[in-house]
C-alpha cells in the first residue's frame, strides 16, 4: 500500500473509532441519566431521592477520580485510609447537595449535543437542560475506564472539580488531609 493511502486509511479508521467512542460514551450517559430521572419521578422527597440514586451514580460516576482531582497535588499526602474516607465523604456530599436541588416528580428536558473527544479515552458531552423554566448548559466529562464514567461536570462552564479544588487547596496547605476530611465531615452533616 502506498504511504499516502496508508495514511488516509489510518486517519479514517481513527475517525471512525473516535465517533464510536463518542457514541458509546453518550449512550452510557443517556442510560444513567434516564435511570436517575425515572427514580426522581417516583421519589417521595429529597433525602429519599439521594438514597435511591446513590447506587446508580456510584456505577456511573468515578468519585475517586473526582475527589483526587478536587484535592489536587495534596492528594499524595493522604494515606490510603484517608483517601478512602475523603472519597466516601465527597461522594455523599455531591449526591446530597445536588439531589437537594431537584424537586421529586419534576422532569428536566435534556437535549444532548454533539460530543467531542479532547483526548484518547476522553469524551465531553454538552447538553442543554431546561428545568423549571430555566435553561442550563451542562457538559459531562467522561473517561473510558473499562466502561464510560463521568469524571467531571461543568455547569455553565464551571467545573465541579475545579470549584472544590479551590476550596480544598487552601485546606491542604493549612492542615493537610485531616483538614480536608474534617471539612468534608462538616459539609456532609449540613446537607
In short:
This protein is an alpha+beta fold. It has helices at residues 3-42, 46-60, 63-71, 80-99, 160-190; strands at residues 109-112, 116-119, 122-131, 134-144, 148-155, 158-159.
Q: CATH fold name, please? A: Nuclear Transport Factor 2, Chain: A
Helix-strand sequence: HHHHEEEEEEH
Q: Distance N terminus to C terminus?
A: 63 Å
Domain module tally: 1
What would the principal axes of the Cα set say about the shape?
Answer: globular
The count of strands amounts to 6
Rg value: 19 Å
Strand content: 15-25%
Q: In DSSP terms, counting alpha (H) and pi (I) runs of 4 or more, how many helices?
A: 5
CATH architecture descriptor text: Roll
Mean of residue pLDDT values: 87
How is this structure best described in words?
The chain has a single domain (3-190), classed as Roll (Nuclear Transport Factor 2, Chain: A), CATH 3.10.450.710. It contains five helices and six strands, in the order H-H-H-H-E-E-E-E-E-E-H. It has 191 residues and is α+β, with helices and mostly antiparallel strands. A hairpin with a 2-residue loop joins strand 3 and strand 4 (134-144). Strands 1, 2, 3, 4, 5 and 6 form a six-stranded antiparallel sheet that branches.
Strand-helix topology:
Layout: H1 3-42, H2 46-60, H3 63-71, H4 80-99, E1 109-112, E2 116-119, E3 122-131, E4 134-144, E5 148-155, E6 158-159, H5 160-190
Antiparallel strand pairs: 1-3, 2-3, 3-4, 4-5, 5-6
Helix pairs in contact: 1-2, 2-4, 3-4, 3-5, 4-5
